[in-house]
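Example 596.
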Amino acid sequence: MTPENAATDDNAVEAAKERYRVEREKRIRAEGKSQYSELSGKFEEFNRDPYVEPGFTRDAQVEEVDVVIVGGGFGGMLEAANLRKLGINSFRIIEKGGDFGGTWYWNRYPGAMCDVESYVYLPMLEDTGYMPTKKYAQAPEIFAYCQLLGRRFDLYENALFQTEVEDMAWDESAERWVTSTTRNDVITSKFVVIAGGVLHKAKLPGIPGIENYEGRGFHTSRWDYDYTGGSPSELMDKLAGKRVGIIGTGATAVQVVPRVAEAAGELFVFQRTPAFVGYRGQGPTDEEWFKSQKPGWQDERIKNFTRAVCGEQPNENLVGDEWTTVMWTDTTKVPDSPEEGADLERIDFELMEAVRNRIASIVTDADTAAKLQPWYGVRCKRPCFHDEYLPAFNRENVHLIDTNGQGVERITKNGPVVDGVEYPVDMLIYASGFEVAPTYDRLGFDPKGRGGVAMTESWGEGPHTMHGVMSRDFPNLLMISTTQGGFGTNFVHYLTEVSKHCALVIKMCLDSGIAEIEPTAGAEEDWFMVLMGKVAGVGAYNAACTPGYLNAEQQAGDMKAARAASFMGSVEEYANHLIRWRENVELAGVDVVRVG
Ligand code: NDP
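Predicted structure in complex with NDP:
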């Protein structure tokens, strides 16, 4: 997929742009993000944790600690590990699931894996000495690695599992946060770090009649192996002879489809927008290479990967996989000249054309292949890389039900309906993704800061933060979040940087007698200007994209929505803002109250 060598006809680029426009417009829905529904009400059962034994009880915990950490996924675990490294051991982790892992605790669907190279995705490999078994780690290995991190940093003794925060309020006179939970714990702390996750609140498509379906239905993040049989790594034997439907063809479905295809009697894949599916190239870890790495190798490789996928074209491409090849040029860049603009369009077109040609060369039925071809720009949706997804459509038992961009029409008690045709299925899988909303909408609780004012109220006109980490009137509350915070292809790179930052802020406060810290209103506005300054190129590019969660379903946003933006530059650039702030001994942009 090297774009330079193809002499592309300008007409082909223009024709593709026109096709992109048609496909995009076909998909825009007036309801925008509200076309989806939560896993609540009638669908509460969909949200149940299927991985724990029911009936767990324990005594309520009443205690005081230095730090409460909300969330035991990679964000919360890295926060805790960084605190330990700095000698801060008085912390409590509150986690909804039955173990550490977050995303990797919940997502146990067959075929689940991380599409980012394991040597840059799995954090702290040099601390743990762990060697990933494969270039792209499978979900069970990542979950086990989370448990290993938990043991390595003695985090289990600090964790309260199967516990959710119910309320969190700042006690002005005591200068403490008071956190209460669903298990009647009351924990008082100097600081709280909210690491509540980003893509963790599952959503269902709001398809008419969805509540009438009488077969077995569930979201991919709550896989029911009791029904399907098998396990993440074994054939789902109970699906033999069954008719299965899957709604969605995003990054999750691309991983699930091949595994269900091999087990089910018939599989119907309901597609609204085809995925970008590039070459994967999975392989075992070369032990000799891994062991030959010099200290500091992982940090260097992580940064190199981020530079490559942000189009910074580092001198050497250390990871050298399809992610880095595809993202090598930032085609969302604001061009300096019309010639550069034309060049970026050509590169983008050639990358997508290569994907379309690859599909046509793998999928034998020409009509199916054409329907699987994506018609949008390379950075419009998260690209997927998989070597078994496309061949699955060559199987006799796999049927692509393309909805021509309209989505499933309705669901009856028997199954989905498309173009007036009902597809009765025994089991219906919703691979419909996760909600992307500002922090407070996803947490399940509403922190109350100074004067008892809730975050939803304080952020009534939109989020206000410094770095996405601290918010005025919420002293000593630190957030690991994409709301005004960073974002990246390798999300763990972002978590690594921001968790380190939060730990260093806490350490600095504890060591220098700072009892309260919060940003000034001016610093928050300055940060918002930084965020807005990064939006320009991506905004223009996104406007021509097919809708999806990365562009808020192409719904016209107001200022409140705009204020929830993430930092659109690279994780490294974002981290440099944090580093510069920490290195400024004047504590710029914050108000502090000293102890005593
Ligand atoms: P997505 O939001 O990417 O996909 C949801 C799918 O459901 C889309 O194909 C969407 O179509 C489809 N859909 C929604 N409504 C309807 C409808 N009414 N009828 C038919 N289809 C419908 O969710 P995923 O869970 O696939 O992925 C979410 C994110 O999770 C990824 O982008 C990635 O960031 C992360 N992820 C990462 C992985 C990794 O390896 N690192 C693996 C898996 C997920 P449409 O596109 O038209 O909206």
